[in-house]
Amino acid sequence: MIPCRLIFVGIRDFVPALLDLSGKDIHVMITGPNGAGKSTITFCMGAVLYSSKVDIEGLKSRNLPLDKTWKARIAYLFKNEGAMKIDAPLYIEFALNIVQEPGQPIKKEFVISTGDIIDEWEQTTKYTSGDRVYSFSAYRQALQYKYKIDPDLYYLIWYQQEVNQFAIMNPEERFRIFSEMHGIDKTQRDWEDSIEQLKESEETLKYAETNVLFKKQDLSLKKQDLDRYNENQKRLHEGGKQYITALLHLESFYQKEIQQEQRKLDQLKEDRIEVSELITEISEKKTFQTEQKTKFEAEKNKLNLEIQQLDNNLIKLQGVAKKINEEINSLNEELKETDLKRNGLTRTEEEVRIAFINLEMEKEKTKQGIRENHRQLEKGKEEHRNNINEIAVISHEVNENKKLEIKYQELLNQYKSSHDAQQKINWLDETIKSNRDREHKLLIKLADFNNELDILKENRVLSSRQMESITFFKNKSVKAYPLRELIQLNSNAKLKDERRFNAIKYTIFFEGKDITPPNDLYHVPLMSIIPDRLVTELPPLNLEIKQSLSNDLMPIAIKALCWVEKFFRDTEVYIKDETLYDPLGIRGSQEKESYILSEKGLAARKATVESVIAKANEELQSIAEIISTSTKQIQLLNSIIQTVREAEAFMTAEFARTQLKSKLEDLRSKEIQLNEQLERLDEVRKSLDRKQIEEQSLEKELKREEEIYSELGQMKEKFQLLTKLNKTYTEEMQKINSLKTKREIMDELFEKATRNLKSVERQIVDFDENLERQSRELKGIDNQVDDTEKVISTSQCNLVNYLEELNKLQNDFGKIYSFSINGIQLETNISLHHLLNERENGKVKFTHAVTEEIDKAAPENYEVVKKEYERLDSEYKRSKILLEQDIERTEQLKDHLEKTVNMRVLEIQQRFRSYMAEFQFEGEVSWEAFEDKKKRILFRLYIKARKEGHRGTMEDVSVKARGGKVGKGVSGGEESLSSLLFALALLQNLHTAPGFIVLDEFDSALDENRKSKVFDLYVQQLQRKLIILTPKSHESSYLNKFEKALVVQHDPTIPRSKVIGLVKT
Description:
alpha+beta
C-alpha cells in the first residue's frame, strides 16, 4: 500500500490542499519554517486512518467563529502495490468527513472507496458511530486486518518529536513503548496481574490457615463432649439392650414355660377324658359280653334239641329208601336186556318226531346257503382279479414318478430353482463386470503407484501443483526451489514430526520480489527474506538444511530455514497443531498427507508403495481367477437351466402324483378287504359243508331212536313203573342227604356256640382287670393336673411383672427399646438363673447411664463445628492449591516475559550496535525489572552509547546532571542519532513490511553529514517510501535524495496556510 495523494479541506487555517505523494520508490520531503503547520499534515494522515494519537478537535481552526458550522474533509489515497499488496482493487481512498454544528459534538464519518481508476470508485463503504455493521470499530478492524494500514499498529506515522524522543525519554517510558511495539505489554500486564493475584492468594491462605487452627481447637473440645456423649450412649444402649434382652428372654422363657405347662395340662385333661371314656367303654363292653354269654348258652341248648330231632327223622327215611331199592332191583332183573337199548336213547319219542320236522327245514336252508355262497365267491374272485391288474399298472407309474422325483429333487437341491439359477447367472455376470471394473481401476492405480515408485527411486518428489509452479517459473526464466530441496528433517526426527509442516512444506521459493503465482501454494520471494542470524539447523523443530548443498544453494537454504522458523514464533502468522493461523483466517494441509522432508519417511513410503504394488499384482491375479471361475460357472448353469425348469414343472404336478399314490393305497386297501371277504366266504362255505354232514348224521340218529321206540312200545307199563320207583328212590335219597347235611351244619353251629361262650367268658375276665388298671391311672392324672395348674399360675405372675417392665421401658425409652429389639435373636438354651443375673446387671448399667449428666446436643454441635472445620480446611487446601498454581503461573509468565524481552532486546541490540558502529559509536540496549517501595514491578529499557575508543562504563543517553547543572551526558546530536538508530532497530524488528513511513522532525538535530548517512541507512534497511517532515534548510546533496518536496507556508496576518508542491527537474 503506497500513498498517492492527500486532500484536506477545512483543517485549521489551511486552504483546500492536494498533496501529491505518488511513487512507490519516490521519497517525499515536507518542509517549511517552524510554526507553519507541517505537523498538521501528519495529524490529517493519522486522523483519516483513525489513529488514537490524534485529537480531532485539534484540527479545527481557532479563528472559526463560534456560531459557524465546522465542516472538514480529509481524503488519503493509496495505490495497491509494493511488498504488502492486498486482495483489493488498484486504488483505495480513505476519507474522513467532519461536521460540527455550533454547540454540538463533532460528527464523524469514515469512507473507504475502491476502484481501478482514481475518483471512479467501484465500491464505497461508509462507517458511522451508530451503524451496527459499519461502525468505527469495524473501520479500525478493516484498517488493521484487511488493508494492513493502521498507523498505530504498524507504526506508520511518527509524529512530532516521536522519533527523536527515545534518548531523552525516561527508561520506564522507553520500555513501555518498546513493549507495546512488540506486543510484550500484554505478557507484562499478565505477569503483573499474576503477581497481584499471588499476593492476594498468600493473604487468603494466611487467613484460611488461621481460621482452620482456631476451628480445629474448637473441634477438639466438641470432640471431647461427643466422646463423653457417645460413651454414655454406648453404656445406655448396651445396658438397655442387656436389660431389655434379658426381659425379652425371660418373657419368652415364661411364655414357653406357660405354653408347655398349658399343653401338658391340656394333654393331662385329654388323657383323663380318654381314660374316663375308656373305663365307660370297657364297662359297656363287659355288659355286652355278659349279655352275649347268656345268648350263646341259650343258643347251645336249642341246637342240642334240634340235633336229636334230626337223628330221629333220618332213621325213618333210611327204612323207606331201603324198601324202594329192593323193589327196583327186582324189576331191573326182569327188564335187563331191553334196558340196554333204552339207556342209549337221548330223546323222548315226541322229541324224535319234532326233531325230524326241524331237520327237514334246516336241510333246505343249508342248500340255499350253499348256492348263495358259491355265487358270492365267484363275484369276489372276479373283482379281486380286476383290482390286482389295476394295482400293477398304477404301481409301475408311481415307481417311475419316484425315480424322476429323486432325480429332479437332487437337481433342485443343487440349484434351488431356475429363478435362483438365473439369478446366479446374473450375479456372476455382475461379478465379472464389477471385477473387470476393479481390474481396470486397479491397473490405473497400479500405474500411479509405479509412477510414484519411479519418482521415489529418482528422489524427485513433487506434487502436481509444485510441478505446475516449477514449469511456470521455468517459462519465465526465474529460478525456483521447492522447500524439500533446501531443508530436511534431521536424524532425530520421527515420522509424525513432519505433520506440523503440512501447511507450508510444499512452498516454492523464487528469486525475485513480486509475481502472480499459478496456484494457491505458498510462493515466497527470496529477496523478502532477511535472516537475523546464520542458522543451519533448528533442533526444536528437528529441521536442518540438506546435506551436500552447493555454495550457491546454501544461502537460499538458510533463508528457507529462517522463513520456516518464523511460523513457530509468537507472531501474527503462526503454526499450531498442524494448522496455519493468520489475522484473516486459518489454513490446513496444502496437499494430501505424504512424507517429503524425511528421508526415513521417503524410505518408508517407498517400501509402502512397493508393498502396495505387490498386493495390487496379487489382487489382479486373484481377480483374473475370479473372472475365469465365474465364466465357467455361467457356462455350466446355461447348460443345466432347461433341465431345472423341467424339474420345477415336474414338482408342480405334486398333487397329481399324490392322488395317484392315494389311489394305489386305496386299491391295496381294497385288495386286503377283498381277500378278507373271500376268506370269510370260504369259511362260510366250509361251515355249510360241515352243517350238511351234521344234518345227515342227525337224520341217521333220529331214524335209529325211532326204531328203538317202536320196539319199546310193548313193555311200556313196566318201564314206566321202574321209572317211577327210580324217581321215588332218588327223592328219598335226596331227603336223607339233605338231613345229613343239615346234621353236619348243626354240629358245626353247636361247636361254634361252645367256642363263643368260652371266648366271652375270657373277655369278661379281661374287662374286670382293665377296669381296675384304668381307675388307678385316672387317679394319677388328677394329681398331675393339680401340680401343673400351680406352676402355670406362678409363671403367669412372673410374666406379667416382666411385661410391665418392658412396657415402661418402651414408653419411656422408645428409641433405645427399638434399637435393642432390632435384629435380636432369642436363644432357647439359656438357664433361668443366667437370665435373672443378666436382667439385674443390665438394669444397674442402664439406670446409671440414664441418671448421668451429659450434653445431649453434643453430636449436633460436633457436626456443625466439623462441617465448618471441613469447609475452612477445604478452603485452606483450595487456597493452597490456588497459591501453588498462581506461583507456577507467575513463574511461567515471568520466564516467558524474560525470554521474550531478552530475545527482542538482543535482536534490537545487534541491529543497534551495527548501526551505531557505522557512525563510530558503541551502542548497547539492556533492560531490568525491579520492585519499588510500594512493591510495584517496574521495567526499564536503557539505551547506552559512547564514542569508539572512549573508556569508562557506558551510561544511558537520558542521564543528565542533577539540580539543573550541565556538563554531564551525551550531546544533542548524539541524542538524536541514538534515538533515530534505536527507532530504526525497533522498526526492523517488527517483522512487518509496509510500503511507507512518515517521520516528523526526523533530522532536526543532525548535522549534514550524519543526516544524509542516517537517511541512506533508513532507506537501505526499511526499503520503503519515506515521507520526511523537516524545518531546516539543507544542502543539495541531501535534497537530491528526494524526488518530490512540499513546502508549507503560513501568513499570520490573514491568517492562512497553504502547501506548495515542488518537483525535482
